[in-house]
Amino acid sequence: MGLPAGFQWGVATAAYQIEGAVDEDGRGPSTWDTFSHTPGRVAGDHNGDVACDHYHRWPEDVALMGELGVDAYRFSVAWPRVQPSGSGAVNARGLDFYERLVDALLERHISPTVTLYHWDLPQPLEDAGGWMNRDTAYRFAEYAHLVAERLGDRVERWITLNEPMVVMAYGYAFGTYAPGRTLLMDALPTAHHQLLGHGLAVNALRGRNARSVGLANHYTPAWAATPGDEAAAGAFDAVINRLFTDPVLLGRYPDLGGHGAPLEAAVRAEDLKVIAAPLDFLGVNYYNPTLVTTPDADGPLPFDLGEVTGYPTTGMGWPIVPEAFGDLLRGLKRTYGAALPPLHITENGCSFPHEVDDGPRVEFLNAHIEAMKAAVDDGVDVRGYYVWSLLDNFEWASGYGPRFGLVHVDYETQRRTPRRSFGWYRDLIAAARNP
């Protein structure tokens, strides 16, 4: 059966993880600037002040993508570069940078896939409540309009939010990511406000004649540790996976049992109609499955987490289970049926030690691509695949230790060195074009 005609092979990055230049050309502070400069928040007290210096070295990085032969490049726009305070007038110099990048990509016949929000909320918005504040959704739509007004005639594909689950869970529930709040289930309104912002942004983008609009969600299969843990696994799936898909595709939230009151209090009339604005595609980010166990009776969450064992692991200690990836894709088709738009695998990748001869990364990517192809053969409509990541980068709370890049970055010199996986992916793309 094979992959569909026009299937896009790509790579992905995110602004705060690679750009650096955090105080240049009018950029304001983000929650990640604040978080990473708070002692003890990030491994090694690392921060994104310089990162991969992509803000200055982007021509070299675009040239690497040209050598790689990708069809598409997924990158994010830094909201604090465009609106330093999170609202009001646009910072033209910030958009100038992205305009130069987009034009350079198009010159090399690389399609820009723009993510509007990859976790770097302008700090003034967080000071006003962040995603716990409903007003942030409207500010996000305003920002989306400004970016599309400048770039909409050249960008093929738009992603509103990246992994809103991570923002809710890691950022507001458990405090391990920016902004570092520990609200547990009281963080549920951040899910709704992000999705409301998504729906409003979809309408703003359509108003600027955006060609293709979607959302990128994190998905992790919920594996019950024992048959007695099935209910906990179902609760985990509802909070982590379906909470960010059901309202977008089905116009309703999943049942969260006795834990849903904070979410219900945030929903107003007509919100779900806004959130369920039709999508052109759904982005799927996959790394590994999660083992789920039943919590103690007085636990604050409807699930606890265990450790998936019996599989090889990445350098991050994550289990490598490509068959779970294929099952996830089939499960999305089974669950959402005709409501499911075409899929793009907007993130898939792994961290291993920094050697240039990175055979384990090649094996990981090959196995997951084969699992994706098998799902396509079973009728799942997948239109693109983006490796995470083009470059080694600032890996959020883990700092600069993990190495996800097809290209090794020496952070002292900023020298880029393509790894073995770079050449392997280049050859795979070339072979796919000329079977």
From TrEMBL:
Record: active site: 163 (proton donor), 347 (nucleophile)
Q: Which Pfam families match?
A: Glyco_hydro_1
Entry keywords, A to Z = Carbohydrate metabolism, Cellulose degradation, Glycosidase, Hydrolase, Polysaccharide degradation
Q: Which GO terms describe its molecular function?
A: beta-glucosidase activity
Biological process per Gene Ontology, one example term: cellulose catabolic process
State if Hydrolase is listed as a keyword: yes
Q: Which GO terms describe its cellular component?
A: cytosol
What is the E.C. number? 3.2.1.21
Annotated binding of substrate, by residue: 17, 118, 162, 287, 388, 395-396
Give me the reactions it catalyses. Hydrolysis of terminal, non-reducing beta-D-glucosyl residues with release of beta-D-glucose
Entry similarity comment = Belongs to the glycosyl hydrolase 1 family.
Q: State the name under which the record lists this protein.
A: Beta-glucosidase
